[in-house]
Amino acid sequence: MGELDEAVVYFVHTVAISKRIDLGRAAKRFLDSEFVTSAAWPSDEMARLPLSLAKVERSMARLNRNKAWTEKLTGFWSFVAGVFTHPVIAFRVLRMVQSSRNAISTGVVEDTASFDTTMSEIKNMLLNVQKVTLVEKDIDAHLFWSEREDIDAYIRFFLRETRHTIQIGDKERTVTLEPRVLLHREGVMQIVIGVHFPRGCTPAEVIDASFPAAPVFRTSRIPEPYAAPGAKWVGGDWAEEREGGVRIRVLEHEQPSSVTDWLDTVVGRVLHDIEGFESGPSYTYPVIMVGPGTCCAEWAENHAQDIARMSIRKVPNVGDQITLSAGPNLSAHTGMRIYATAGSALIVHLRKWRVGILDLHHTLIYERIGLVYIRLRSLEQRIADFRTGKREVLRTYRTALELEKEARGAYYRFGSARNISRHVLNDLGGPEILDVVRSGTSMLGERASTRASAQVAKASNRIALFGVVVAVIAAIPAIQPILKLIEQQRAADPETSIWAVLQTLVTSPILFSALVLGAVILYGVSVIGVLLYRVIRYLMLLRKRGYLSRIEGYEITIDDPVDN
């Protein structure tokens, strides 16, 4: 076995949650607790920022407005006009002038150049925080169509970094994990991290470490927000200095920790904020990316068995004479080879490549596959529960149709990505699950139709009864006039029948008007109540989405090479 030049494993962990997720509420909680550094709705062009960074950006915008106001001053009358047009900005500037005078008296003066430099540094800092989120949105739009009406069915988060010392064989490396979390409204959570292995690892070492339960972490530095409010840390000490404005817990693991342990920590933290629990299937899919070593020119041909073993994650036994097959090469380019199964994917970069953010061109495909698979499994379970409420049936039908489009690759822009998705979903049993979903939704529809017919019959009886009750209640104020009318009719003509009396009541304009007025008032109150509820709910959803960054005039450049 030859050594590898580069190796990284991206773990795509997808979990089904016990309930539908209120994405707006989750976003607000994550941002307010500083657990995440940015959030992104698909419909937004920029990222949402936590409270601390939102305050920094607001202050920067305020200072820029103050500077623009002062630059327009050319004399006394322009100053007077500026005070009348923008009194708040004028007050702030005057207060800053007073502060500057105090600074002059102490010998501390900053010129315009230093102000511009500081503003530029703050802007770059805010952009760096959003960099991964913005690039992720851009690559996602490059790979997938967005034809769905409910475009904000999910939200992406970029969590605070954690640092670890990993040991693979006899090699150590300090790595930084940059977790990305996706929450889907239907009750699915997905966590993605990349573990960059030390240089010179052998294929066998990469295979062993690609299993999430492998003990690889020797030390860990975890930001305090990773612990739920009120939770107690087990082991470790606080670092002397804060990082990113929060305390850091330093852990020395007596027994090496694993990726599974780290994922459990993040899952628990997320579940605490969304007030849910794991319910149903979960799925961890490793995406292995390697760059071949320099032992030979034709590495892929000379190490075909190493590729096959990494593709199926099988470490060879001593004296093993079995010839393995890596399966079909799903890559559309000669510069790389892609092999994917139900359990993992292997991407061999044969050209210049370096681990970096542009790996999202590959990992986002497998993230979409994991999301579709877990949603299919959850829908299958929901159908098995046989819930036949009207809202549940409509939601099930809508989800089934959406997932069928997802499974056949309707939202993929490129045929190669669509082929990878279909290949992996076939291995995972996607077509069989879809068959169960189709037959289940058909049975569910028949059951719901039968139940709806029975409910309609019951409802008609209830409406009739309700109408009688309303009529009786509405008639109560008119009972006394009615009795007087009946008495007058009998006094005038003792031979008058009861039908004549009823005819007089029905044709009474006062009674008829009272009934109509009551019905109109009841309907109007109901309509106004519904409208108020919808308006308040809409405003609450907007408030919960988080602070939207408003930085303009930026360009993100990435110099990491990527295969083409």
Question: Keyphrases for this structure?
Answer:
16 helices, alpha+beta, about 20% strand, 8-stranded mixed β-sheet, about 575 residues, 5-stranded antiparallel β-sheet
pLDDT < 50 stretches: 101-109
The gyration radius over C-alpha positions equals 33 Å
Percent of residues in beta strands: 15-25%
Strand order of the largest sheet: 2-4-7-8-1-12-14-13
Structural class: alpha+beta
Mean pLDDT: 79
Task: Please tally the helical runs, counting DSSP H or I stretches of 4 or more residues.
Answer: 16
Number of domains: 1
- Range of helix content: 40-55%
Oligomer: single chain
Description:
This protein is of the alpha+beta class. The protein has one domain (1-57, 116-391, 403-435, 479-564). The chain is built from 16 helices and 15 strands. The protein has helices at residues 23-32, 51-71, 76-85, 87-106, 112-143, 203-209, 259-274, 299-302, 304-312, 360-385, 390-407, 415-427, 430-475, 479-492, 498-506, 509-544, and strands at residues 6-17, 36-40, 48-49, 154-159, 162-168, 171-177, 180-184, 188-196, 215-223, 237-238, 248-258, 278-291, 336-340, 345-349, 547-548. The strands form three sheets. The protein has an eight-stranded mixed sheet with strand order 2-4-7-8-1-12-14-13, sandwiched between helices. Helix 3 crosses helix 4. The longest helix is centred in the last third of the chain and has 46 residues, at 430-475. It is globular, with a radius of gyration of 33 Å. The two termini are 28 Å apart. The relative contact order is 0.13. Residues 101-109 have low confidence and may be disordered.
